[in-house]
Amino acid sequence: MAYGVAADARGRTSFGLPAVRSRAETTMGELGMLQWLAVAASALLVGMSKAGFGTGAGLLAVPLMATALGAERMLGVMLLVLIIGDIFSILHYLGKHDTRNLLMLVPGLATGVVLGSLALGWFRALPDADLWMKRLVGALSIVFVGLQFVRMAREKQLGAVATPYRPKVWHGVGLGMCAGVTSTLAHAGGPLVAIFMLPQNLPKQTFVGTVVKYFFIGNVIKLAPYFYNGLMTRDNTLLALGLLPAVVVGTFLGVYLHGKFSDRSFRLVVYGLAFCLGLY
User: In this predicted model, what pLDDT tens digit does every residue of 52-101 receive, in sequence order?
Assistant: First the structure.
């Protein structure tokens, strides 16, 4: 069961954590130590990923936070954490982006967020909505871990490719829409965008700067439907603000580790853990 955190008669989960109530009702005061450690680790991973180290670390951050908070509450808290990380990254990559890619991707992104919001409302109307949301997040995590391995294989293959891929406009719009849907449902649009942009052989800073700005725009757009669906509560906002130091530490840690360790090795560990959490 993807992210199935079953509670016993005492209201404890299989991790010994308090059972998470649906509809994002758990308050900050009800979080246990293990839950705080899990959400802090998630924010740390977001910061590292936004710094350009361990690209795709968000694939582990999302299921880790969903396991601690429940899928519905994770969506609201993680959105704010991602926006915080985006702001730091944009400051670092000012003026470094590919305008053509953004002009192709963003219109599809906006459409995808609308479609994803409709799907999100449908999932939340189901009986045992949080359980179904956990299964959805888990399934998407497993799928996108697979896509990341495809991306890594393509990275190796592209070393010998001379002609970069130049996407047509409808390619970018369609991909942006698909990424907008998955990003709205589970903050899982990154692998799709990366696989689309990687064959273009853009300079690394241009690549990262384009991705960061694409998702910052998408995350800001997602605020409206998340508010409408009741995911942006006062307590979720306070929790996200409380995780700000972890995002900052993760950003500096990512910059430091970038020149110390292999990004590829780190990603393999992250993807393996994300796959296991997805199965859980």
Answer: 666 666 677 888 898 899 888 999 999 999 999 999 888 888 888 999 99
pLDDT of residue 19: 40
Tokens of residue 79, six digits: 């959105």
Distance (Å) of CA 44 to CA 52, 96, 150: 13, 24, 25
What share of the chain has pLDDT > 70, as a percent? 69
Label residue 80 left, alpha or beta by phi (over 0 means left) and psi (-120 to 50 means alpha). Answer: alpha
Rounded CA separation 254/195 (Å): 22
User: What letter would DSSP give residue 71?
Assistant: H
- Confidence (pLDDT) at 63: 84
**Residue 70, C-beta contacts closer than 8 angstroms, at least 6 positions apart:** 5, 20, 21, 22, 24, 26, 130, 133, 134
Q: Which helix (H) or strand (E) holds 43?
A: helix 33-50
Q: How many residues does the chain have?
A: 280
Tokens, residue 214:
């694409």
From CA 244, how far away is CA 217, in angstroms rounded?
20
Residue 200 DSSP symbol: G
C-alpha–C-alpha distance, residues 127 and 54, integer Å: 37
Name the DSSP class of 16.
Answer: S
Burial class of residue 128 in the structure, from the number of CB atoms within 10 Å of its CB (0-12 exposed, 13-18 middle, 19+ buried) = exposed
Residue found by looking up tokens 């991602």 in the block: 82
Query: Residue 279: CB partners within 8 Å, gap ≥ 6?
Result: 2, 138, 142
User: In the chain, which residues have pLDDT < 70?
Assistant: 1-29, 52-58, 129-130, 133-134, 137-138, 140-141, 144-145, 148, 151-152, 154-163, 258-280
Q: How many CA atoms lie within 13 A of 13 on its CB side?
A: 18
